Amino acid sequence: MTRTPKRILIVVTNTPRYTTAGYRTGLWLGELTHFYDVVTEAGHDVTIASIDGGAVPLDPESLSAPMLKSGGTGERYADPDFMSLLDDTVRVADVAAEDFDAIYLTGGHGVMFDFPTSQALGALIADLDAQGKVVSAVCHGPAGLLAARREDGTPVIAGRKVTGFSWPEEKLAKRQDAVPFRLDEELKALGAKYSKALLPFKDNVVRDKNLITGQNPQSAQSVAKAVLKRLK
């Protein structure tokens, strides 16, 4: 246990479905649990928030047998106390940057719809970044970085190294025709220096000072470890 716990805000989606297809979506559960377990075992305090507050939908694909067998996710899914944390989350607009030392943006395709359009999330990320606090995201979570602007209006990610769910991975997930945009292209359009691993679905974390991003669900634990290192 750490002597001085840090306060980490985890942000999740409220979006339960795609707009142009009948697929259901939501939070990719493992991207929450893998990160949560690492940082709480290190003694840090966690608050889970969502764009609108309230209940959090889960992406059914993240509840498949292989996913639940990964990194203790199944144990968390079976734990009513843990799952109750997703029943009534705080609203992003109701939290302040001053109350946290780090933010972590989870993925799941749902974030593609409500993260980039949230002015409250964009402002929160910009405030945390301006204070030099840790800004982290995984998989589709970097979609939340798109809304963040500095005081002069420039994107927070301009000129900075990032990663996120790649287009080859999107095609392998068979969601290329259902997502509202290409995450990699939108990040680059705002001046970010996007990169990806040579092979899809390989653990990949990119660090640029206080900005830490992971490429896919397999990267959540590594993002958490990088966040812990930065918090020290």
Automatic annotation (TrEMBL):
Keyword Transferase applies: yes
Cellular component terms per the entry's GO annotation: cytoplasm
GO MF annotations, alphabetized: glyoxalase III activity; transferase activity
Pfam families to which the protein is assigned, alphabetical: DJ-1_PfpI (PF01965)
Keyword Lyase on entry: yes
Keyword terms, alphabetized: Glutamine amidotransferase, Lyase, Stress response, Transferase
Superkingdom in the source lineage: Bacteria
Gene3D superfamilies named in the record: 3.40.50.880
Ranges where the DJ-1/PfpI domain occurs: 31-229
Family from the record: Belongs to the peptidase C56 family. HSP31-like subfamily.
Protein name: Type 1 glutamine amidotransferase domain-containing protein
Protein source organism: Arsenicicoccus cauae
